[in-house]
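Here is one chain, start to finish.
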Amino acid sequence: MLDSLDYQAVGLISGLEVHQQLMTREKLFCRCPAGLYTETHDGEVLRHMRPTLSELGEYDGTALMEFKTKKEIVYLLNRQNVCTYEMDDTPPFLVNQEAIDVAIELCLAMNMDVIDEVHIARKQYLDGSIPTGFQRTAIVGVNGWMPFKGRRLTITHVSVEEDSCREVEDKGHQIIWRTDRLGMPLTETVTGPELFTPQEVREAILLCGLLARSTGRVRTGIGASRQDVNVSVRGGDRCEIKGVPRAGLAVKLVHNEALRQCNLLKIREELHRRGLRTPDSVRMTAHDVSDVCATADLGFMQRALQAGGKVYAVNIAGVEGLAQHPTQPDTIFLDELRGRVRVIACLDEAPIVLSGAAMPEFPDKHGILERLRKRVNPGGNDDFFIVFGPEEDCRTAAEEIRIRFADATAGVPKETRQALVGGLTTFERILPGPDRMYPDTDSPPTRITQQRMEEIRSRLKPPPWERIERYMSWRVPEETAYYLIRRGGAEIVDAVVEKTGADGLLAGIVIGQQYKALQRSGVPVQRLGVSEWVQVFDLYTDGRIPREAIPAVASTMAQDGLDAEGASAALGIALRQHEAWTQEADQLTFEGYRCKNNEDTDQKRVRFLTGRAVRMLKGKAPAAEVAEFIKTKLGEVVR
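Its structure:
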């Protein structure tokens, strides 16, 4: 249940960055196989990252933040799926043209202007997810749109870029990555900030996913598609929710982020009311209180001290009570401080940061709280916070607490936030700026010729919105129509209708719903392609099998490797003349017929005999004709 929030009143605005892995044989800038995942490794590489200057001689703020973490980065390498290129020991190969083709196909489907010459750029990443410290990326198309809820949703650009490593573990000052996914081609589709409710964000994600899948040239499954959602409210600022795994989760995430920003604006108002209007007005003093806490009956503090660490008390003037101000559901501003300290100071043992106001909740056998207050000597409107761990990290944590309160004087800081399963977010890093981009001098540009464009345009498939409109006109249920496009069944339905003349509603329902049922039954439905389904529907449209027999014939084809005629013969399914099957149906009796509470009716008798007849005839007659025959025989024609 979401807390009430008037999205129009708060000025909610969202936009998407949809990352989609492409179905290519090789990676983007080397010839290693794409999509070969492994859980073992043949070697490890240790790296430390340092920021570099942009073309304008400036450092990117995110790069400086990552450098402050002093992370030791470990890469797990498997010789089956990485080479010296990924480790930056070999220059890049020429860009994978198969990936460029898929990107162009997506651009054309979204009415975009395709770039005449694709230039590779570098985008700094110092979080360790890419061993080189940068990602190679290239814009392929700009200025596009998709039909969306009666209007046009702007697509600002589509890029092709390298995927990053998979995180294995992040603890303290060490982070471990697996490199099997590294370098796989993916596209980044960026929409304009034109989504105004969480539900619209969800629908836009689904639409982008449908379009990508309709090409038949993208990967599916966990991690193959990942969304970053940009959110802001009036008076706030852009925050990026990173790595939204499912469209359904976006509703909670966007709602809670809007709520968080509204609450941060309330905290800003209170800070201003207290005279804290600028970052410089936030004053901090840090105290080493390890001796005071040496007798504290708190396991986390004792572990830090026994490991040679320290306990620091950080006093912030004028912020009393604000750490307990709500932000997201079941979270408070103190959690904002914890997020910063966990990421930047690398202090990750719970509770990470304690507020002086919350200290009475913990055991205080030795009067530690009172001794802390004497040591810190907070003012009447101050609050102090406790951090514990290695001394250098405690100093970093103290400074980050000050910085987070300083940021609060402006309202909403620009952040990249990690999506959590419950629909909440937590701090991941400062939002990157334009200073992290610079040209890649190792890669030549790729010229996109008109001939290449026309060749790709000639094999374009209908976009999903056109297919959905057509299927809805056939009265195919909306859920089934989306399933067909999402799972690749739309190609089969279109071919069956075109080549056999079968009814579109029948083809859509049988292939959409029965395909799913057969798959759940363990039938190897992947063996049923366009030609196999066309064969089955040919038998039906020729009047050689009833519609009820279509799933059985398809199932036998998949399981036994037969063609449609062979499967039909093996099942003994073939429509017979009316006189032939009615003679068999005449032999039916009411043996075994039972009624509860003596509620015997003509309709129940008809249903009983019809069911027995259909099972006995096994595809030798259409079910509707069998039912009509039984009704007539019983003298009860039900209209």
